[in-house]
Amino acid sequence: MTIDADRGALLVVDVQNDFCPGGALAVPGGDEVIGPINRLIPAFRHVVLSQDWHPADHVSFASNWPGHAPYELVEAEGIQQLLWPDHCVQGSRGAEFRAGLDADRASLVLRKGARSRLDSYSVLFENDRTTKTGLDGWLRSLGVEELWLCGLASDYCVFYSAMDARKLGFGVVVVRDAVRGVDLPPGGVDRAFEAMRGAGVRFVESGHVA
What we know:
- The termini are close together.
- The longest helix has 11 residues.
- Strands 5-2-1-6-7-8 form a six-stranded parallel beta sheet, sandwiched between helices. A two-stranded antiparallel sheet has the order 3-4.
- It has a single domain, classed as Isochorismatase-like (Rossmann fold), CATH 3.40.50.850.
- It has four helices and eight strands.
């Protein structure tokens, strides 16, 4: 598969300390995405890095729901919310990009999930599914028509970003060896890939990219 530098953008999703080994919400093998991502970055004119950026009172933190534990489901202002351990708190070490990621070459850093009462998995929409982050307008202003996705986690933020990008009319490529998933609940990664494939998302290994 060939990268079109004029109409393509690389989207690196949430490669942050808290999602890597040793972090508060570690994705198994999360560090392993860094090498493939760094090899891809120089091939793109437009590189977007997303960053979970939660306030301490964020709605997704189980610690803010007395009597509830991580990985329980609750309803928050009419939106189903999965509860997580506290992670990627604004300004914390856990929210920083993982050491070794070539973050200095980013064209744009998009911080998401920064509102206390609204979570954001996708880089394109908040979890109310109507509030845009503004990324699609920025991409279209540059003539971008195709997004190459990598990062963490393949069954949450990568998945929702890919599906939203397809709904907005972008071509989407997921780089298989540059994503890892939490697989929660079990089987979630396989279901995410099946759903993405059904939505027209294409898949490639970084070593097969020209």
